[in-house]
Amino acid sequence: MELVVATGNPHKVEEIRAILADVDPSLRVLGLHEVGGPFPEPAETGATFEENATIKARAYAAATGRLCLADDSGLEIDALGGRPGVISSHYSTDGRETGADRATRDAMNTSRVLRELEGVPPAERGARFRCVVVVAGAGVDITELSLADTIVSAGAGIAGSEMGRGLKGPAPQGKGPDHLGKGPDLECKGPVPECKGNGRVWTGPVVVAIAHGVFPGRIGVPPDVPRGGGGFGYDPIFLAGPDYARTSAELSAAEKHAVSHRGAALRALAALLRDGPGPLTRHADTDGGPDGGSDGGDRLDLDVDR
User: Fold this and answer.
1) Could you please report the per-residue DSSP string of 171-224?
2) Full-prediction pTM beyond 0.90?
3) Please, how many CA atoms are within 13 Å of residue 22, restricted to the half-sphere of its CB?
4) Is 72 assigned a catalytic role?
5) Which of 43, 155, 160, 168 is deepest in the core (most CB within 10 A)?
C-alpha cells in the first residue's frame, strides 16, 4: 500500500516514514514532491485538529488521486487554557500566516509560550502534544454524516462502522474498481461515486481512517530550557513525562518515536489499515486535558491505548 503524506514539512515526512516503517514495512510512504505537483495548499479553517487533518487529507486526495495521509497536531498547555492548540504553528501571530520561515516562527512561538508562563510553578505547567491522523482516498464522503461518529476501514471499496444520523446498519461493502456498493439505506456507484440515502447526497474523497495520539509532559522553566538539538517547534521547551528530565529535543529519534503523540497515532493508524477496524466503543476522552475542540462527550472511536 502507498500513502502520500499531505504536508510540505520535510521533518514530518521523514518522521512519519520512520514510524510507519517500524510498524508495517509493507507501507510505502511518499512525499508530495514524489507524486507531481505543485498542489494547492488548502486553508486550514477547522476548529479542531481532526477537522484540519480531514481538510488536508481530502484536499490532497482529490488533487493527487491517491490515498493521502494528513495529520494536525499541536501543543496544549493547561495553564493557558489549552493554548496554543490548533494555532500552535503560528501562535506568535495569533494564527496568522506572515511568511516567516520555519526556524523564525519556531523561535517566536516558544518565546511567547515562555513569556505567558512566567511565574507559573513547574507543577502547574502541565502540557501535552496532541496528534490526529486522517487518511482519505477517492470515494464517497460519508464523513458529512458525522465525522466524530464514523470510522471507515481501508481496503477494497467501502467498509465501515454503523452509520450515524438516521442511516441504519453498516456502510455498504464495496468491491472492484468502480466501488459498487449497497447497504440497507445507502447506494454508491462510480469510480468517485455519488451516494444517496435518506435524502442526502455525498461525493468526493472518503475518509478511510482516523487515529489519535497524545504525548504528555510539561513546559520547562528558563534558564533550564530551551535545550536540545533535535526535533523542531516546541521540542526544546517540552519536558517529556513521566520524569520530566529531558526535553523532547534531547530524545533520540527512536526514543521520540516510541513515546510521541505522532508515533502513538501512526501506530494505531497502521494497525487499522493492516487489520481493519478493531473494537468500536463509545467512551469519553480520558487523558484529562483539552482535546482540540471535542466536547468531551461520548463518541464512537477506535479503541486504542492512548
Assistant:
1) PP--BTTTTBEE-SS-EEETTTTEEEETTEEE-SPEEEEEEEEEEEEEE--TTS
2) no
3) 15
4) yes
5) 160
For 120-146, how does the pLDDT look when each residue is reduced to its tens digit (9 = 90+)? 999 999 999 999 999 998 654 443 333
How far CA 249 is from CA of 122, 216, 229, 233, 268, in Å, comes to: 19, 14, 6, 9, 24
Contact status, residue 30 vs residue 2, Cβ threshold 8 Å: yes
Instruction: Find, among 277, 278, 276, 294, the residue nearest to 286 by Cα.
Output: 294
Closest CA to 147 of 77, 221, 55: 55
Spot the catalytic one: 22, 71, 72, 101.
72
- pLDDT tens profile 19-73: 888 888 888 999 999 998 789 889 888 999 999 999 999 999 999 989 999 999 9
Which domains are delineated in the chain?
Answer: 2-138+209-302 (3.90.950.10), 142-204 (no CATH)
- The Cα–Cα gap between 176 and 169 comes to 22
If you search the block for the grid coordinates 514530518, which residue do you land on? 12
